[in-house]
Write a structure and sequence with these properties.
Layout: H1 11-19, E1 28-32, H2 37-50, E2 56-63, H3 70-84, E3 88-92, H4 103-116, E4 122-124, H5 129-141, H6 146-149, E5 155-156, E6 165-167, H7 175-184, H8 201-216, H9 220-245, E7 250-251, E8 254-256, H10 258-261, H11 265-278, H12 286-298, E9 305-309, E10 312-317, E11 320-325, E12 335-336, E13 342-344, E14 351-358, E15 362-363, H13 364-367, E16 372-375, E17 382-383, E18 392-393, H14 394-400, H15 405-408, E19 413-416, E20 419-423, E21 427-428, E22 439-446
Length: 451
């Protein structure tokens, strides 16, 4: 039962302090609304603040479909937001393909991806001090390094210009304070029945371990929060060391293998850990990271190393290390091009973009001579780079240009009639090159990234 004594925590102040440095006039603020007491309290606070603010508020409920009550929770969130006059979007996700990560991790990954897709400037989540303490302990019990033990950041700046900033304004607030606020304002919320299932590690800590710990160490929440801050500072120092160690070795999302060979084991692992984190990949535990480093460094020059790790792949080609989400098999398709600036292609084949340029790329005039299509490489594909020279095998051309083998099978090619016109980022066929002062098209290919 929550205490009837008024809390000394100023929840509105916590949210204002978190938002003020980041929101601008007309900014969009998005709340991740589960329907639990924590997010319901945050919705109540945000709705009051939004009345006199220049930013707009909306909410997203992610329907995982895991609980038999999932439909009822979505309905509850819809009714609650309607009563507050807050727009709500409900997005359904399916964790089936990510079950290998575990139910909680899969749901969290899909939830964050859904929040990032909404186009908001700032996303708020209602994690609180008890959540943070549990996370620190779980990471330590899993043998995580300082990055994992730093737990959840109060603020996470998006990895790209289009990604939202993520805020957790209640991270220093105990759950008891949120319960007291909810009861004082007669708020209603839903309870996730899985929170009582102590086969989940977090619930085991919450129900069996932490009550005993609190009897002996009543300030454990604040103490673990302080530890998380200390671990976070250590992460910043290690990242700065990794930046210095790899300053001339990381370019175009690739890491030169010499960076790992030239450093001792500890600093080499630190650089590899930093590189993986920068690409958004999950970080292995220390022993697995060391083995990953060994395979990447010790392989022969012509070896094609591929290490699978939790839905990602770490690959080495020649002297460079690449990291990417695990690639789907290449598909056979043929897509017509009718002048669009961008074509989104199936599965792992990514996106083609077209930009006009004078005297560069593909001659627009020449493209008008036939039907233009896009499809991936087929067996025995040939390209003629010069009318005075014989055709060259496509695979040899891409090898000469250092295109990694896994990209060769996925790369979309541009055809005009039966002619191979362009290998994006590699070559344009001689007969189709734009002449000086002629309108041309520069074609770029982007492989899909992880969400």
């Amino acid at each position: 039962m929550a205490s009837s004594r008024k809390s000394s925590f100023d929840l509105k102040g916590c949210v204002v302090d978190a938002l003020s440095p980041l929101v601008h006039e007309g900014a969009s603020v998005l709340l991740g609304l589960s329907g639990g007491v924590d997010s319901v309290v945050l919705l109540h606070v945000l709705q009051q603040l939004s009345i006199r603010s220049s930013w707009s508020l909306s909410a997203l409920h992610v329907h995982h479909g895991i609980s038999p009550e999932a439909d009822a929770w979505a309905t509850f969130c819809a009714d609650l937001c309607a009563s507050h006059g807050v727009p709500l979007r409900v997005e359904r996700v399916d964790i089936t393909s990510l079950r290998s990560l575990g139910t909680e991790a899969a749901a969290r990954k899909l939830r964050h991806a859904a929040l990032s897709r909404q186009g908001a400037d700032v996303v708020l989540l209602a994690h609180h001090l008890d959540d943070q303490a549990e996370t620190v302990l779980l990471q330590l019990l899993r043998g995580s390094g300082v990055r994992g033990a730093s737990a959840m950041p109060a603020i996470s700046v998006g990895a790209s210009a289009s990604a939202p900033t993520l805020l957790r304004p209640f991270l220093g607030v105990p759950r008891s304070v949120l319960l007291e606020y909810a009861e004082r304002h007669a708020l209603e919320w839903v309870e996730d029945e899985s929170n009582a299932d102590d086969t989940y590690p977090r619930n085991f800590l919450r129900h069996r371990v932490l009550p005993s710990l609190e009897q002996r160490f009543p300030a454990y929440r604040k103490t673990l929060l302080r530890s998380a801050h200390n671990f976070y500072e250590a992460v910043q120092l290690l990242d700065e060391l990794a930046r210095q160690d790899s300053e001339s070795y990381i370019a175009d999302r690739c890491l030169d293998v010499e960076a790992l060979r030239d450093l001792d084991a500890a600093r080499g692992k630190n650089v590899l850990r930093y590189f993986l984190a920068a690409q958004g990949a999950p970080i292995p535990e220390s022993a697995r990271l060391q083995e990953m480093r060994r395979q990447l460094c010790d392989a022969r020059q012509d070896a094609q190393v591929c290490i699978d790790w939790r839905g990602w792949q770490v690959r080495r080609y020649r002297t460079h290390i690449h990291v990417m989400p695990a690639l789907s098999p290449a598909l056979q398709f043929e897509v017509p091009w009718s002048g669009e600036a961008e074509i989104l292609l199936p599965a792992s084949h990514g996106t083609l973009r077209f930009q006009e340029a004078i005297g560069q790329g593909i001659s627009v005039k020449q493209l008008r001579s036939g039907v233009v299509t896009v499809h991936p490489p087929r067996t025995g594909e040939l390209v003629q780079l010069d009318a005075t020279r014989p055709h060259k095998k496509l695979n040899i051309l891409m090898q000469e240009h250092g295109v990694p083998p896994w990209q060769r099978r996925l790369m979309p090619l541009l055809f005009c009639g039966g002619d191979l016109v362009c290998v994006p980022g590699v070559e344009v066929a001689g007969a189709y090159r734009a002449q000086q002062d002629e309108i041309g098209l520069m074609v770029t290919w982007t492989m899909p990234c992880a969400e």
